[in-house]
């Protein structure tokens, strides 16, 4: 049937909207969804353009803000219709939205001003200057003054910057080139510059389809219906009682849509229109990331008379109404390079901090590094679970905790660093009476159960176990070996094949799938079933929840090779396509969530790993290197946004994500099954691999070995003191013994003011783990204080310096431990660097720039982006500075005095700050909102000095942090800001000047403002700062008030701090123990 020609007036558009809504029977609430509203507007724009309603088209573009018509914009600029140009822009951005928007409006108004001057229309030029350009004076007063001075010139081309200005036409063309680049780079125009690729008359087609459907519903449809109106539903008369043809075989309807092989377009995936209709939101639109292309030629600098970049200092601070703590938050792109400035505007950054041009080894991933060194390949641990491992998962925060499920239903929790099995649970139904009768009967007949999946929740507070018989059990984890029953769910009929956690509507949920071909979603707190997804025609093998922006969805795979995607609603699956191999397939995203992979094995043993093009629903690349016929179902995992790994052919195979060829294959010293099960930890430093004879091998890279090595230093081995040689002697210590020119030892003086606080458990000193949360309520847990009072207690080295320097203000090791960087109070950086076999200690002064005010008082790098620096200021604010774009992105306000400490937790995504106001603040590092704040618990009778500092440092677990104040040392739990441990020196003791964790977080090195005469003839010298070696837990360095730096290690005979002193005359000297806060004052250790 040919649809009628529509010549509707504009006032009939409301009827068109109503008709389109009825096409798929979408409910009223769904129409209000922004994605559908956007698509409706786009359809109307196409209709208006085809009907030649030009002015209406541009008005709707501007009012909706959904599509920026660059052609229309260019025409208006070429014609000099400045009012229309700004009116059209106002639908998409405002002057102060970001620096790109500001530059766009500035260039337009500057051009309008220059054209008025060129016409000698001084009154018009003054009007533009006052009404349009004065707004920019608050960002750059000098620039506004220079623009104003153009009024005094006979010809503004006398200005050097404008000497090449031609006529208005050529100037507009030149300006348009710059404007187009600014608009393309502006994040506010993202996804608004390209009109969707639609077939002609798409709205007409949809209306015609609706009319066809209405015609099928007629009781007596006529062969050639006469459509006269869209205002009411179509209906035919009923001559001779004729019957309507079936919708399923009616040629107008086209029958049931065929199953597509990829991501369907709008409205394609319908089983039957009369049954239900999927949400007409193309899955592509929210599964594909928006383009983030770089615009290297786009101005990123200041406003200027020429087409120049906008400086960071010209940004106008705005405070979002929902966050009073933020002074400014920019949405600017980070892909813009800087250009030269004009009019004498300085190109220096306005950041008041000294920045060091220093690259620390291991600080960031380098594309030139050897890929083979980046993934775990060294067998570091071998564990025996007691039964065959079926599934494994590392804790998301405590990355050496490994959860294991086995083929007999057992679960185990391992601390792989210490090789200790913390938890072992055999399968047991918690409440058999609440289980379904089929399960009860089945367990009586055959009690055998296997674990199909174990997995941690995103925060590590829960873990789930999916069994081969009906059940899912959820446990809560409270640290160490404290595992408690949380939920037991009779989830599916038959086996529960997979389990995952997700956060739909920001509430934690459990997702399960099973042999009954269903996918179910459960509330993780109450166990209430929230959704049931039906549509698979075979047992569901795996689930993969994910999200893009604010859209949560689930991928599922079934044993018939079908992959489907679901939203958290009851409207059916959105996509349906075939996986390579068409049998057992699992899916996983890269760590950053931008790349989708699947791994599967066919019934014939052919295995595949592929990357998917989400926008097309097609395989993007297929990775080579599998055995021709795999001997089992291949398991795989991803890590570091860079590597893929799979267990195949009695080995582990690795691929670079960007290369389809096999990178390497390792056998982990042999003993692996045909298709070993594998699992990376979150950082990709450890890899758990199932082995023969119920074994688990832990593979590690260099960082993983370093992480595991910290556990080897935790338990004191008494035999170590008798060893003839101490391994891994620091080169600093070796140099102290061999180089008389660098040695500075005084045998007879006393060393005062250094303390080593060792975390000890009085019940078992040999079982110390880098965890705090599980032990905070144990009153037997103490801090053991070891003081260094004599030179004979340690080995030390004074680092040479030949500059006139004052006291040491900050001190830090490089990540490799091969250099020490110091900052003096007169803003000089000192760097001592040495090689393992070639000692070289010479101070180097680093260049300084951007002096105060206000002064920078503290600094911390963002753990996931080295271009982001948190800078504490003397004026009590914290500036979040982006090095790449030379811009302060946010200014955090919450303290009342200068900032003295900053520390990031990558596990919790927070920044902890401390200030001279003795206040602690926790900030979300994603949006920079303040989450919590609390003042220190000062000991009774203690009043801190007016200039006292509070410093913070995170524990190795990334959940607790050390607080250092002149009156105390304390450990806080981050999420609740609860003080869980505290150590207070006696009232008459000298104030604490500084403290730090050792690299394994098992020692706290503290310095005090006591006299330090052993290294100086000046009796007023005292320790100011202390730094711990990043790899050697027992080495630290000390910065003194006279500008000198000393490095310390324990005696070779002891090997570590806190070791028991040798027995003399049948007795041992005692070391006082300092209990937790809450003990009586008389029990406190005395310094």
Please provide a written account of the structure.
There is one protein chain. The protein has 1087 residues and is of the alpha+beta class. Helix content is 15%, strand content 29%. The chain is built from 15 helices and 53 strands. A hairpin with a 2-residue loop joins strand 14 (540-548) and strand 15. The chain is flat. 39% of the residues are buried. WD repeats lie at residues 489-532, 634-665, 892-924. This is CTLH domain-containing protein. It comes from Rehmannia glutinosa. Residues 1051-1087 are annotated as: Disordered.
- Kindly provide the radius of gyration, computed on alpha-carbon positions and rounded to a whole number of angstroms: 35 Å
What structural category arises from helix and sheet content?
Answer: alpha+beta
Strand order of the largest sheet: 48-49-29-30-53
* General shape: flat
Major sheet description: 5 strands, antiparallel
Arithmetic mean pLDDT: 74
Helical amount among residues, as a percent range? Answer: 10-25%
Count of helical stretches: 15
Unreliable stretches covering 5 or more consecutive residues: 1-6, 21-33, 239-301, 307-369, 715-753, 759-781, 836-850, 1013-1017, 1061-1087
Estimated share of beta-strand residues: 25-35%
Measure the end-to-end span.
Answer: 97 Å
Total beta strands: 53
Summarize the structure.
This is CTLH domain-containing protein. The protein is 15% helix and 29% strand.
């Amino acid at each position: 049937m040919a649809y009628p020609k529509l010549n509707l007036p504009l006032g009939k558009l409301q009827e068109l909207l109503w008709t389109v809504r009825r096409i798929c029977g979408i409910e009223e609430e769904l129409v209000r969804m922004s994605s559908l509203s956007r698509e409706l507007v786009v359809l109307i724009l196409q209709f208006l353009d085809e009907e030649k309603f030009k002015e209406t088209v541009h008005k709707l573009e501007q009012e909706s803000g959904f599509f920026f018509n660059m052609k229309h914009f260019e025409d208006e600029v070429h014609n000099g219709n400045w009012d229309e140009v700004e009116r059209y822009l106002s639908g998409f951005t405002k002057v102060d939205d970001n620096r790109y928007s500001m530059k766009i409006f500035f260039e337009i108004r500057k051009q309008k001003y220059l054209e008025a001057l060129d016409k000698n229309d001084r009154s018009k030029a003054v009007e533009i200057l006052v009404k349009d350009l004065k707004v920019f004076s608050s960002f750059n007063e000098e620039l506004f003054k220079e623009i104003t001075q153009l009024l005094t010139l006979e010809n503004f081309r006398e200005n050097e910057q404008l000497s090449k200005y031609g006529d208005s036409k050529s100037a507009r063309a030149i300006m348009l080139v710059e404007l187009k680049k600014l608009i393309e780079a502006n994040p506010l125009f993202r996804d608004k510059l390209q009109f969707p690729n639609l077939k002609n008359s798409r709205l007409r087609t949809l209306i015609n389809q609706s009319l066809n459907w209405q015609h099928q519903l007629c009781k007596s449809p006529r062969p050639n219906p006469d459509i006269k109106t869209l205002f009411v539903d179509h209906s035919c008369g009923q001559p001779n009682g004729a019957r309507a043809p079936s919708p399923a075989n009616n040629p107008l309807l086209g029958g049931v849509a065929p199953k597509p092989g990829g991501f369907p377009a709008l409205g394609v995936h319908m089983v039957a229109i009369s049954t239900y209709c999927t949400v007409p939101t193309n899955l592509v639109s929210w599964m594909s990331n928006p383009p983030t292309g770089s615009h290297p030629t786009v101005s990123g600098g200041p406003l200027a008379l020429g087409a120049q970049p906008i400086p960071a200092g010209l940004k106008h601070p705005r405070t979002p109404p929902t966050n009073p703590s933020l002074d400014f938050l920019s949405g600017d792109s980070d892909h813009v390079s800087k250009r030269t400035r004009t009019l004498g505007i300085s190109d220096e950054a306005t950041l008041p901090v000294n920045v060091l041009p220093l690259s620390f080894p291991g600080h960031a991933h380098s594309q030139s590094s050897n890929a083979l060194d980046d993934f775990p390949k060294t067998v570091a641990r071998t564990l025996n679970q007691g039964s065959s491992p079926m599934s494994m998962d590392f804790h998301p925060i405590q990355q050496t905790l490994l959860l294991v499920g086995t083929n007999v239903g057992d679960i185990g929790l391992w601390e792989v660093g210490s090789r200790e099995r913390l938890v072992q649970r055999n399968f047991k139904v918690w409440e058999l009476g609440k289980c379904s009768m089929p399960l009860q009967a089945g367990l009586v007949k055959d009690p055998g159960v296997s674990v199909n999946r174990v997995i941690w929740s995103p925060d590590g507070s829960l873990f789930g176990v999916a069994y081969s018989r009906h059940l899912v059990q959820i446990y809560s984890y409270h640290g160490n070996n404290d595992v408690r029953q949380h939920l037991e769910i009779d989830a599916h009929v038959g086996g529960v094949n997979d389990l995952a956690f997700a956060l739909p509507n920001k509430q934690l949920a459990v997702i399960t799938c099973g042999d009954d071909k269903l996918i179910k979603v459960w509330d993780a707190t109450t166990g209430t079933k929230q959704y049931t997804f039906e549509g698979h025609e075979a047992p569901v093998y795996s689930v993969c929840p994910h999200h893009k922006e604010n859209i949560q969805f689930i991928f599922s795979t079934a044993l018939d090779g079908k992959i489907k995607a679901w939203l958290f609603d009851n409207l059916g699956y959105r996509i349906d396509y075939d996986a390579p191999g068409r049998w057992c397939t699992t899916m996983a995203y890269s760590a950053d969530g931008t790349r989708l992979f699947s791994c599967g094995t066919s019934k014939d043993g052919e295995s595949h790993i592929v990357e998917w093009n989400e926008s097309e629903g097609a395989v993007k690349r297929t990775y080579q290197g599998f055995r021709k016929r795999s001997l089992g179902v291949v398991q795989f995992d991803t890590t570091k946004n860079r590597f893929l790994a799979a267990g195949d052919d009695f080995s582990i195979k690795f691929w670079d994500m960007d290369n389809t060829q096999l990178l390497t294959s390792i056998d982990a010293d042999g003993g692996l099954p045909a298709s070993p099960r594998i699992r990376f930890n979150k950082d990709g430093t450890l890899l758990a691999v199932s082995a023969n004879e119920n074994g688990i091998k832990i593979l590690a890279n260099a960082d993983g070995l370093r992480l595991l090595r910290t556990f080897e230093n935790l338990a004191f081995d008494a035999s170590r003191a008798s060893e003839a040689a101490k391994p891994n002697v620091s080169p600093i210590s070796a140099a102290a013994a061999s180089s008389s020119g660098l040695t500075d030892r005084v045998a007879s003086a006393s060393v005062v003011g250094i303390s080593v606080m060792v975390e000890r458990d009085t019940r078992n000193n040999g079982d110390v783990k880098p965890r705090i949360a599980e032990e905070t309520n144990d009153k037997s847990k103490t801090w053991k204080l070891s003081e260094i009072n004599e030179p004979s207690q340690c080995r030390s080295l004074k680092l040479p310096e030949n500059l006139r320097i004052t006291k040491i203000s900050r001190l830090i090791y490089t990540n490799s431990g091969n250099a020490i960087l110091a900052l003096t109070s007169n803003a000089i950086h000192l760097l001592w660097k040495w090689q393992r076999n070639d000692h070289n200690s010479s101070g180097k002064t680093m260049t300084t720039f951007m002096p105060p005010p206000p002064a920078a008082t503290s600094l911390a790098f963002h753990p996931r982006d080295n271009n982001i620096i948190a800078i504490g200021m003397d004026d009590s604010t914290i500036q979040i500075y982006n090095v790449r774009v030379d811009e302060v992105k946010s200014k955090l306000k919450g303290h009342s005095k200068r900032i003295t400490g900053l520390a990031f937790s990558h596990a919790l995504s927070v920044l902890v700050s401390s200030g001279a106001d003795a206040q602690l603040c926790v900030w979300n590092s994603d949006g920079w909102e303040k989450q919590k704040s609390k003042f220190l618990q000062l000991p009774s009778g203690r009043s801190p000095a007016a200039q006292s500092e509070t410093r913070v440092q995170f524990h190795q677990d990334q959940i607790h942090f050390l607080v250092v104040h002149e009156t105390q040392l304390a450990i806080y739990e981050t999420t609740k800001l609860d003080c869980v441990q505290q150590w207070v020196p006696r009232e008459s003791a000298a104030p604490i000047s500084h403290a730090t964790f050792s690299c394994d977080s098992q020692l706290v090195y503290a310095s005090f403002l006591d006299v330090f005469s052993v290294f100086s003839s000046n009796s007023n010298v005292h320790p100011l700062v202390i730094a711990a070696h990043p790899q050697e837990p027992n080495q630290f360095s000390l910065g003194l008030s006279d500008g000198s730096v000393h490095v310390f290690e324990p005696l070779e005979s002891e090997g570590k701090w806190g070791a028991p002193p040798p027995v003399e005359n049948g007795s041992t000297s005692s070391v006082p123990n300092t209990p937790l806060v809450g003990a009586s004052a008389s029990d406190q250790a005395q310094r």
